[in-house]
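Hey,
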Amino acid sequence: MTKKKNEKKVAVVAPKKVEYINLFNTTYYFWRFWIKEILKTGKISKSRFVKDEIGYTGKIAVDKPEVDRSKQVLAEYQKKNPDTVTMWN
């Protein structure tokens, strides 16, 4: 028998495809400096900024299972900091 025949074949498992859901409109400036950190402290692991075609505006997108939790995290932040500028709508 050759060595190749004795080797076990390992099936390659494809990574799970992440389905992002757009939550709120915002600007890249707010995303880069504040919103990303707010979501990280709320333990939202998969989030990203989806840019519009023109300008520096876009949407906050999170993984489908984390939609409700991320809405809670952002609402809690607004509740605790009522005097700050509205960074998303």
